[in-house]
Amino acid sequence: MGRAFEFRKGRKMKRWSAMAKAFTRIGKDIVMAVKEGGPNPDANSRLRAVIQNSKAVNMPKENVERAIKKATDKDTANYKEVLFEGYAPHGIAILVETATDNNNRTVANVRSYFNKCNGTMGTQGSVEFMFDHTCNFRIPANGIDPEELELELIDFGAEEVFEDEDGILIYAPFGSFGTIQKELENRKIEILSSGFERIPQITKKLTEVEMADVEKLIEKMEEDDDVMNVYHTMEE
Q1: In a designed cystine with 16, which of 22, 54, 58, 60 is the match (CB 3.0 to 4.6 A)?
Q2: Which spans of this chain does the record mark as coiled coil (predicted)?
């Protein structure tokens, strides 16, 4: 198995751990998708993907419809995606993805988390190059052979396809998202969920005490409502 498989295995129990947080994140994704491409999912591939993700976390249909309707209101603030970079203690690189309607607030909060946990907030580009920006799709297994599917999807950008207990996962570079989404839809293959992740190219092994120092910073970041994802180079 490749790096995507190991990365997913390490993060599996941590992602979307709090249902309320998951709903908040989906709500922000809906606003950004509607502001970008309109409220019709048939004509808006990004919104279509977010609706699929809402089903994956059991978000009620009425919540999704309400969020789409709210996003079409001109008075509804849009969210801007902002990436923060820096270092946790013990030389661990940290990438923080946020979606914010108040950049000053988010910058101040993220900086304070780094400072309080003996980390250092970096400049743009200081650690982003240490991570591969990827897209992923989860589909039902339903008798599909992952190895055959991988060979068929290589021409569309797929780099790694593997099966776990929840279905089949397809990983590809960030820029291949639309191409693979379209091909899966053309094949009438149900997309259970999809998204983007940043996979560290190299990880660093720490002692249990050192890991606790880094996890303290990560937990503070993840508690912030503006934070969507936190990635790091610590070996899990």
Answers
A1: 22
A2: none
Reading the block at residue 204, the tokens are 């660093």
Whole-number Å distance between alpha carbons of 46 and 52: 10
The length of the chain is 236
Residue 160 near residue 171 (C-beta atoms within 8 A): yes
Alpha-carbon distance of 200 to 229, in angstroms, equals: 14
CA atoms within 13 A on the CB side of 84: 30
- 65 contacts 55 by C-beta, under 8 angstroms: no
Which amino acid makes up residue 2?
G
- Three-state secondary structure of 23-85: HHHHHHHHHHHHHHHCCCCCCCHHHHHHHHHHHHCCCCHHHHHHHHHHHCCCCCCCCEEEEEE
Q: What is the pTM of this model?
A: 0.88
Cβ atoms of 229 and 28 within 8 Å: the answer is no
